[in-house]
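WARN no homologs supplied; continuing
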Amino acid sequence: MPASVLILTFNEEANLPRCLESVGWSDDITVFDSFSADRTVEIARRAGARVVQRRFDNERDQRAASLQLPFRHPWVYNPDADEVTPPDLAREILETVSDPGRPEAAFRVRFKSMFMGRWIRHASLYPTWIVRLFRPGSVHFDRSVNLRYAIDGEEGRLKSHLLHYSFNKGLDAWLDKHNRYSSAEAGELLASTQQGLPWGDLLRTNAVARRRALKELSFHMPARATLRFLYMYFLRRGFLDGAPGYHYCRLLSSYEHMISLKAGEIRRRRAGLPL
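OK structure emitted
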């Protein structure tokens, strides 16, 4: 028994063909589109996918709305449009969902971040585990950007990897996206600094909880952009990824800098100070 496939899109004509090709093993593919202005919808329909459109308001509500759709199968595989599913991962997914006795409600998958023609193994903080296979009724979301998946039930982990091509549409598209994300992240940063630090989670064996706690801790630290670069490039040995690793670390550091600057701007607005 195959899984249903759900792909959320907005102007993904550069990424969608390869993503769809890699999930061609499914007989139930839905593209949930935010009214793209390019050929995304045309590409999806030509590939035989069902297309459903909804105006985008925020990532959390968009993803939540997508899970209200009727699916042919009890399991949904949910790659992003810039992710490619290799054959070994496809086989593992099909083997997993074919077992009706599985107790898990969702599975996490590791991904390989691709940049400048190579896998950025060290600077990308590999391995990062993300939810991609789940029973739709067992999933809901926290945060409005860079979502956290909350699972009602047991979680499992798949052994195979996704391939993530987040720069496939070019640096302009990546910078535009992260400029938008940084605005939402600035609000999350300010909200987090009003709360206590999750010290207990820093010591947990659960890697996902520990990673979240580290992010919350980073919200309270000065010079976050510089610290992120030092952490990724030196402590996580991003220098072993060569020139692509260096540029990758610089880009993620600039993203942190935008978040900090925008959080400061919000504080000044609230205090009635000049910008």
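The chain has two domains: 4-164, 171-271.
OK
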